[in-house]
Amino acid sequence: MRTLPAALVVLASSFLASGCTNGEKEPDDGAKPTIQTPKDLREQQKRVLQLLEVFEKHDLAAMDQAADELEEMSKSETHVVSGEIQEQVRKYRVRSSANDAIDRLRWLSRFARALLLLEGDDAANWARCRDLMVKSGPEAVVRFTGVLIIKFTDNPKFCRPMLMDLCVSHKSLVEDAILEALAFEGTEQPGAMKMRLLDNTAKKGLVSTLMFLPEPPVARLRESALRGPDTTRRAWAQMLASRKTRDRNTGVETTDAWATAILCDQIANDRLWEVRSDAAASLGETNDPAAALPFLTKALKDRDHWVRRNTCLSIGRFGGRGTPATGEMIAMLRGLDTEMFDVEVDGKTERRPLAGNPRRELDTAGLAALRAISGKSFAELETFFLWWDEREK
């Protein structure tokens, strides 16, 4: 089951697949109407589940009738019967493969009924569903992982601990599923109801799930943070600093070295300014200036003003420990008077001086950082510049 992302929404919809829209849709002239409302969809989903349950009994005549109705529903433009169910019904019609198809349809029926336990906020039902999935074997666990991923945004309080438990009990099987979901590059996922596969909240939640495992798969997390889609890389940049370890002797918390190293790589090399900016902000939360400061110092020369703004603030969070970066920061701030940037005007590129909000953001961040580093409370940057010049003589 290495193609999880392509099936997540379908699985979250209890195997009722492809084509339905979330809301009204104007049918073409002469075409059969599609499902008009979520209520209609739920009713048809319920009927498919009832037909699947027939295969759990030993009534051949009833199974034939259920297969007839599933085939008829498959022809409808409402598309509520998944391709997987359709394939098993076709096999059921062939005598040589009928028994295998019945076993598979029974498995799908049990799986779909187990998913109904996830409706609502009953912790006991969620735990029962998890136990049923684990007993049903590896395929059920991977499919269940997909459902938890889809439901993460709406119900993180149940999904996150269950995913963590599954990662511990099933290791790479579930880790693979989460990482594949984080690697999905599209904005919409095909399925019964069109929706974004993962919003930013879900991605940050899944990232934190993997980060806080007792034994996180560091090499694979690094690959996701450095090579994943833009939104996934941002989620890592925003969350990594929170993976901290407390020193038993001092009680001081510091971000784990592997997490800080990924942030350093992001601020130095990521092509997206938003990722570099998030990494710059997070490095200030690591409490590890020895590792972070060399990369933050280099980032003071970043072409994007927002990256430099967050870099200044992060250096300032280290207080006096940020002193080695002071000279580079003052040089950058002094250079703002002559800094130019490109702007598109009527299809032409013009060079303009840095001004307005970008300049104010940098000046304000620089002033706050210099105050924190030096312990001085000068009101203007120029005063700091004079103080620094005297100090360096």
Would you give an account of this structure?
The protein is mostly helical and 393 residues long. It has a domain at 1-197. It has helices at residues 8-12, 38-54, 60-75, 83-93, 98-115, 123-135, 138-151, 156-170, 172-183, 200-211, 218-227, 230-239, 257-269, 273-283, 289-299, 305-317, 326-335, 356-374, 381-392, and strands at 244-246, 253-255, 340-345, 348-353. A two-stranded antiparallel sheet has the order 1-2. Strands 3-4 form a two-stranded antiparallel sheet. The termini are far apart. The model is unreliable at 1-35 and 187-196 (pLDDT under 50).
Instruction: Describe the main β-sheet briefly.
Output: 2 strands, antiparallel
Beta-strand content estimate: under 5%
Side by side, the strands of the main sheet go: 1-2
Q: What's the overall average pLDDT, rounded?
A: 85
Helix content: 55-70%
* N→C terminal distance: 67 Å
- Tally of DSSP helical segments: 19
Low-confidence stretches: 1-35, 187-196
Order of helical and strand elements: HHHHHHHHHHHHEEHHHHHEEHH
Outline, from the CA principal axes?
Answer: elongated
Annotation, overall tally of beta strands: 4
Rg, rounded, reads 28 Å
Which secondary-structure class do the elements indicate? mainly alpha
Question: What is this structure, in a nutshell?
Answer:
The protein is mostly helical and 393 residues long. Helix content is 62%, strand content 5%. Helix 12 runs parallel beside helix 14 and helix 15 runs antiparallel to helix 16.
Please write out the topology:
Elements (H helix, E strand, L loop, with lengths): L7 H5 L25 H17 L5 H16 L7 H11 L4 H18 L7 H13 L2 H14 L4 H15 L1 H12 L16 H12 L6 H10 L2 H10 L4 E3 L6 E3 L1 H13 L3 H11 L5 H11 L5 H13 L8 H10 L4 E6 L2 E6 L2 H19 L6 H12 L1
Antiparallel strand pairs: 1-2, 3-4
